[in-house]
Design goal:
heterotrimer; A mainly alpha (391); B mainly alpha (118); C mainly alpha (496); A: 391 residues; mainly alpha; three-stranded mixed β-sheet; 11 helices; 5% strand; globular; disordered C terminus; C: 496 residues; two-stranded antiparallel ribbon; 2% strand
C-alpha cells in the first residue's frame, strides 16, 4: 500500500509515525489482553470437550470484562506482615516492563511516495533504535524483579518459594533465549528489529525460521532449531504451561501472588499476558518475517503488513494456548534440567554452527582487514629502574 | 536521535501512568473493611509459625551465579554478532575459543552436580 | 584481521601464564572426567609439572631492552616482572609440595586446591608484570579470589570459614579503595598506563593537585591492604591462623610478592611527585616495623607469630620502596633506585624461602586431627624430629636476620639501598626492630631445643615426603644463598 501524499499540511507524516505506532502498540496490548484471555478459555474448553464461558455476552466475549470489573471493585487485603514498599512495587514492576518493551517492536511498514517519485517505506515502530532487540531483552529481564520481590515481600513461605522458583526458572531460560535471539541476529546481521525484518523480505523461504533461499543464505535446519529453542524458552520465560509450576493452583497455593488481591493481582495477570504478546511479537519479527507476506502475490500485497503481523502473532498465541491445553506440567528439577543441560548447550552449538557456516561457506572473499594496532615502540620511553645487582 | 529519547520517555510515562491511574482509581472505588482475620498471612488455614524471611536453599544462589557468568558471556556475544561480518573468519575462531572456555566451565559445573536438583 | 606478528609476540610474552592456566584447566577438567578423584597424586604432580614448564618458558623469555611491552603497552616485559615471576613460581613449587602433604593428612585432598593455586598464581604474575593500573587491578582480583577460597578450604572447621569470610570482606574493601585510587589518578593524569603516568608527572610542573594526592593516598591504602602494612594489617593474623597451614604458606608468599612487585612499579611510576607520598611511606614503614615486631613478642600461636613477622617484613620491604625516588642525591645521580629494586627482589626471595620453610615445618608436624599451631607443640622437637627442628632453626635465624643466612643478606641489601638513598632514619628503625624481633624468633628455637616434650608422641602422619622435600629445599636455599648471594643473581639473571 502506498500513501500518495506524505505531508498533511504543516505536519510531516514521518515524524508523527512514532506516536501513531506508540498509540497502536499500547492500545493493542491493553485492549487485546481481554480477548486473549477469552480466546484461551474458549480454546482450552473446546480441547477439553466442555463448554467455555458462555453466559456473559455473546459466546462469553464479555467474560473477561466482567472479571476485570469484579477485580476492580474487590476489597484489597493488605496483610499486616508484609514489607510495605516492596509489596506495592512488585506488581507495578511486573507490568510496566512488559508494556514498555513494546516500544521497540515494529509491527508494520507504510510505504510513502515522496515528492520526487521514489517510494520510501517507513516502519511503524514507536522507537526505531539501533539496538531494538537488546532493549526488549533488557526490559523482559526486569520482569524477574517483579516476581522475586512479590515472593519476598509477601512474608509467606509459599510465596517465597514460588517467587524464588519462578525467578530461578526465568533466569535459567533467559540464557537459551538470548542465544537463540543471537542466532537470529547473526542470520540477519543487525540488532535493529526493522533491519532484521527487512532482511527476511521476499517469500516464506527467506524467513529466518526456514532460510532456504540460497541467494541470501541457506541455514535451513539451524534456523528451525534456533526458532524452536526460542519458542520453548519464551514459554518458560513467561511462566506459562507446561512451565508454570511456580504458579500452579495445585502447588504452593498460588505461588508468588498468593497474598495479592484485586487490582494488584490483576496487574500480575495482565503482565503475564502482555509479556506473552511481546515475546510472541519478537518471535514474529525475528523468525517469521515480521510484516512480510509469505508469497509475493499481488493480491496479498494489498493486505497491509500490520494484518500479516497480527496473523502471525495470533498463530503464536494459539501455540501458547495449545501447549497449555495439552501438555502436563513439568516437574521443577526436570524443568531446570532442560534449561541448563539441554537447551543451553544446544543453543551454543547452533549459534556457532550458524556463525561457522556463514563465515566459512558464504563469505568467499576475505573481508577488508581492520588496520593493525600500532606496534608499541620499545626503548624510547624512560625505562623503569632496572634492578641492579646484589652488592 | 534525541526524538527517540522523547518517544521512549512518553511511552514509559504512559505505561507508568496507566498502571498508577488504574491502581489509584481502584483504591477510590473499592470497599475497605479491615478485620484482624483478613490481615493474616494465608497458609491454607493454620496460622503461620514464624516469618518467611529465613534461610532458603543455597541452590538458588548457585543458579544465579551461573546465570550471571553466562549472561555476561551473552553480553559479549551481542556486539560480536553484529560486527563479525566485517572481521571474518578470525572473529568466529576467536569467539569460539572464548565460548569454549566458558562451556568448559559449564561442563565442570555439570559434572560437579552444581546444576542438579531443583 | 589484526597483525599476526603482534599477536604472536603478545602470546609469547604471557606464555608462562598461559601454561599455568592450561595446567589448571587440565587438572580441573581431568578431575571431573578422566581420573575422577581416583589417583590423587596426579593432581599435585601435574601442578608441579605445569609450574616447571612455566618456569622454563619464563627463564627463556628473551631479556630484551628494558621498556619492552606487550598487549598494547599494558604488560611490561622487564626484569622486574620476570624475576618476580621466578619468585612466584618458586613459591608455587614449595606450596604445592606442602599442600601435597597437608591436604592428604587432613583429609582435604581435592583437586580444586591446586586449580585455585595455579590460577591465583596467574593473577600474581599479571600483577607483577602490569604496566597499566587496570591490569594491576585485574591481577590483584584474580590473585585474591583464589586466596579467599583457599583460606576457607577446610570447610568443616569454623576457624577456616571465619578466616575466609574475614579475608573476603576486608579484601573487597581494599580492592574498592584501590579502584577509587586508580580512578582519581586517571582523572589527574589522563592515563592509566604507568609509563604514561610517569611521563605526565615528570613533565608537569607545580605541586600535585588534590585529586592526584587523594588518588595516591587511596592507592597506598589499597596496595597496603594486600601487602599487610599497618594499619591495614588487621586481617593478617586471623586469616593466617584460621586458614589451612598449606594455604597460609602460599598466601604469605604469593600475595606479598605480587603486592610488592606492584608497589615497586606503581611507586616507580610516581617518583616525579615523590615529595608528596614519601613521608607517608616513611611513616607507614616505621609504624609497620615497630608494631609488627612488637605484637609478635607476646604470641604463643606459631601461625600468628609468623603472621606478625610477615607484617614486619612488609615493613622492611617498604624501606626499600622508600629508597626508590632517590635518583639524585645532593645533585649526584645515585643508583639507589636500582639498589632498592634489587634489594627488594632479593629480600622477597629470602622471605619466600624462610616463611614457607617455617610454615612447612608446621605442615610436617600436622596430621588428621591435629593442626600444629601452638608453640607448645614444638617443645623438644630437636629430639623428636631433628631434621625438621634444625631446619626450623635455620628459618628462625634467617627471619631474625642473623648471618650467614639469606635473611641477613636480604636485610643488608635493603639497608644499603636505604642508606644510599638517604633514608637514614628508616635504616636505624629497621636495625632496631630487627634486633627486637630476634627475641621471639630465638624463643621458638629455645622451645624446640631446650624444652622437654610435655605430651605423648603423636602418631606419625601418613605422608610427609612433600613437606620434608619443601623444608629441605627451603633450608638449603636459605643457607646457600646466604653464603653466596651472587648465586641467586646468576640463576635469576638479576644483576648488571
Amino acid at each position: 500500500m502506498v500513501i500518495q501524499n506524505y505531508s498533511l499540511g504543516p505536519i510531516d507524516l514521518a515524524s508523527i509515525i512514532p506516536y501513531v505506532a506508540m498509540g497502536t502498540i499500547l492500545g493493542f496490548i491493553l485492549l487485546i489482553v481481554p480477548f486473549v484471555i477469552w480466546f484461551e478459555r474458549v480454546v482450552i474448553a473446546l480441547m477439553q470437550d466442555r463448554l467455555g464461558p458462555n453466559r456473559v455476552g455473546p459466546r462469553g466475549l464479555l467474560q473477561t470484562i466482567a472479571d476485570g470489573v469484579k477485580l476492580f471493585f474487590k476489597e484489597d487485603l493488605e496483610p499486616a506482615a508484609v514489607d510495605r514498599s516492596l509489596y506495592y512495587m512488585a506488581p507495578v514492576l511486573a507490568l510496566i516492563p512488559a508494556l514498555a518493551a513494546g516500544a521497540a517492536l515494529p509491527f508494520a511498514s507504510i510505504s510513502l511516495r515522496m515528492a520526487d517519485g521514489s517510494v520510501k517505506s517507513l516502519p511503524l515502530v514507536a522507537g526505531n533504535v539501533n539496538i531494538g532487540i537488546l532493549f526488549i531483552l533488557a526490559l523482559s529481564s526486569l520482569q524477574v524483579y517483579g516476581i522475586v520481590l512479590a515472593g519476598w515481600a509477601s512474608n509467606n513461605k509459599y510465596s517465597l518459594l514460588g517467587g524464588l522458583r519462578s525467578s530461578a526458572q526465568m533466569i535459567s531460560y533467559e540464557l537459551p533465549m538470548s542465544l537463540a535471539i543471537l542466532t537470529g541476529i547473526l542470520m540477519s546481521g543487525s540488532l535493529n528489529l526493522v533491519d532484521v525484518v527487512n532482511s527476511q523480505a521476499g517469500s516464506i523461504l527467506d524467513w529466518n525460521f526456514f532460510k532456504l533461499n540460497p541467494a541470501t543464505g541457506f541455514f535451513f535446519p539451524l534456523g528451525l532449531i534456533a526458532g524452536m529453542i526460542y519458542l520453548v524458552a519464551m514459554v518458560a520465560e513467561t511462566n506459562r504451561a507446561p512451565f508454570d509450576l511456580p504458579e500452579a493452583e495445585s502447588e504452593l497455593i498460588a505461588g508468588f501472588h498468593t497474598e495479592y488481591s484485586s487490582m494488584k493481582f490483576a496487574m500480575f495477570f495482565m503482565g503475564e499476558y502482555a509479556s506473552m504478546l511481546v515475546v510472541s511479537g519478537i518471535a514474529t519479527a525475528l523468525w517469521f518475517g515480521g510484516w512480510h507476506a509469505p508469497f509475493d502475490f499481488v493480491l496479498w500485497n494489498w493486505i497491509p503488513g500490520g494484518i500479516w503481523f497480527l496473523a502471525k502473532l495470533t498463530f503464536f498465541i494459539g501455540v501458547y494456548v495449545w501447549l497449555r491445553a495439552t501438555l502436563p506440567r513439568l516437574r521443577y528439577d526436570a524443568l531446570m534440567n532442560i534449561g541448563w543441560k539441554r537447551l543451553l548447550p544446544l543453543s551454543i552449538v547452533v549459534l556457532f554452527a550458524v556463525a561457522t557456516v556463514d563465515a566459512f561457506f558464504f563469505t568467499k572473499d576475505t573481508p577488508a582487514a581492520i588496520s593493525a594496532p600500532a606496534t608499541p615502540p620499545s626503548g624510547t620511553l624512560t625505562p623503569m629502574a632496572a634492578p641492579g645487582g646484589g652488592q | 536521535m534525541s526524538e527517540l529519547y522523547l518517544t521512549f520517555a512518553v511511552f514509559g510515562a504512559v505505561a507508568v501512568g496507566f498502571v498508577c491511574v488504574n491502581l489509584f482509581i481502584a483504591r477510590l472505588a473499592r470497599p475497605s473493611a479491615p478485620n484482624p482475620d483478613k490481615l493474616e498471612t494465608y497458609e491454607c488455614g493454620p496460622l503461620p509459625v514464624g516469618e518467611a524471611w529465613q534461610q532458603f536453599n543455597v541452590h538458588y544462589y548457585l543458579f544465579a551465579l551461573l546465570f550471571v557468568v553466562f549472561e555476561v558471556e551473552a553480553a559479549f556475544l551481542y556486539p560480536w554478532a553484529v560486527a563479525y561480518k566485517q572481521v571474518g573468519r578470525y572473529a568466529v575462531v576467536e569467539m569460539l575459543i572464548f565460548v569454549a572456555i566458558l562451556a568448559a566451565g559449564l561442563g565442570y559445573a555439570w559434572r560437579r552436580k552444581a546444576i542438579e536438583w531443583e | 584481521m589484526p597483525d599476526k606478528s603482534v599477536i604472536i609476540g603478545d602470546m609469547q610474552a604471557i606464555l608462562p601464564m598461559i601454561v599455568l592456566w592450561v595446567t589448571a584447566s587440565v587438572i580441573a577438567l581431568g578431575d571431573v572426567s578422566l581420573w575422577k578423584r581416583g589417583n590423587k597424586a596426579i593432581n599435585p604432580l601435574l601442578a608441579i609439572v605445569g609450574v616447571l614448564v612455566a618456569f622454563k618458558f619464563l627463564v627463556n623469555t628473551p631479556r630484551v631492552a628494558s621498556g619492552a611491552t606487550a598487549f598494547a603497552k599494558s604488560l611490561a616485559i622487564d626484569p622486574l616482572g620476570q624475576i618476580s615471576g621466578i619468585a612466584l613460581l618458586v613459591t608455587a613449587v614449595l606450596s604445592i609440595l606442602l599442600a601435597w602433604t597437608y591436604l592428604k593428612n587432613r583429609g582435604l585432598d581435592h583437586a580444586e586446591y591446586y586449580v585455585l593455586l595455579l590460577l591465583s598464581l596467574t593473577g600474581a604474575m599479571m600483577m607483577a608484570s602490569a604496566n597499566d593500573l587496570i591490569v594491576l587491578f585485574l591481577g590483584l582480583e584474580i590473585l585474591s579470589f583464589g586466596l579467599y577460597v583457599m583460606a576457607g578450604f577446610a570447610r568443616t572447621e569454623e576457624r577456616s570459614e571465619e578466616a575466609s569470610v574475614k579475608y573476603f570482606l576486608l579484601g573487597a574493601f581494599g580492592s574498592a579503595f584501590l579502584l577509587y585510587g586508580i580512578a582519581l589518578v586517571y582523572g589527574a593524569t589522563q592515563s592509566t598506563n604507568l609509563e604514561q603516568i610517569r611521563a605526565t608527572l615528570s613533565s608537569s610542573s607545580g605541586a600535585p593537585g588534590p585529586m592526584l594526592l587523594a588518588g595516591i593516598g587511596l592507592l597506598i591504602v589499597g596496595l597496603g591492604f594486600k601487602a599487610a602494612i599497618v594499619p591495614f594489617h588487621q586481617w593478617t593474623p586471623d586469616v593466617y591462623e584460621g586458614a589451612p597451614t598449606a594455604a597460609t604458606a602460599y598466601m604469605a608468599g604469593a600475595a606479598k610478592i605480587g603486592a610488592f612487585a606492584a608497589m615497586l612499579r606503581v611507586f616507580g611510576a610516581l617518583t616525579p611527585v615523590a615529595a608528596s607520598w614519601l613521608p607517608a611511606i616513611q611513616i607507614l614503614a616505621i609504624v609497620t616495623m615497630v608494631f609488627g615486631n612488637l605484637l609478635a613478642v607476646t604470641q604463643t600461636n606459631v601461625k600468628r607469630l609468623l603472621a606478625y613477622s610477615s607484617i614486619a617484613h612488609a615493613g622492611y620491604l617498604l624501606v626499600a620502596i622508600a629508597a626508590l625516588p632517590s635518583e639524585t642525591v645532593n645533585g649526584i645521580a645515585s643508583n639507589a633506585p636500582d639498589l632498592a629494586v634489587g634489594g627488594a627482589l632479593f629480600y622477597l626471595f629470602a622471605y619466600v624461602f624462610m616463611t614457607l620453610g617455617a610454615f612447612g615445618v608446621l605442615v610436617y608436624l600436622s596430621s588428621k586431627g591435629r593442626d600444629v599451631q601452638h608453640v607448645n607443640d614444638l617443645r623438644g622437637l630437636a629430639k623428636r624430629e631433628p631434621a625438621a627442628a634444625y631446619a626450623m632453626m635455620f628459618f628462625m635465624l634467617s627471619l631474625g636476620g642473623i648471618p650467614p643466612t639469606m635473611g641477613f643478606m636480604g636485610k643488608w641489601q635493603i639497608f644499603y639501598a636505604a642508606v644510599t638513598g638517604q633514608q637514614i632514619m628508616l635504616a636505624i628503625v629497621m636495625a632496631l626492630t630487627s634486633a627486637m624481633a630476634v627475641y621471639y624468633y630465638l624463643r621458638v628455637v629455645w622451645v624446640m631445643c631446650f624444652e622437654e616434650t610435655t605430651e605423648a608422641a603423636a602418631p606419625e602422619p601418613v605422608a610427609r615426603t612433600g613437606a620434608m622435600a619443601a623444608i629441605m629445599l627451603a633450608a638449603a636455599a636459605t643457607i646457600v644463598f646466604g653464603i653466596a648471594p651472587n648465586l641467586l643473581n646468576a640463576i635469576t639473571g638479576m644483576g648488571p
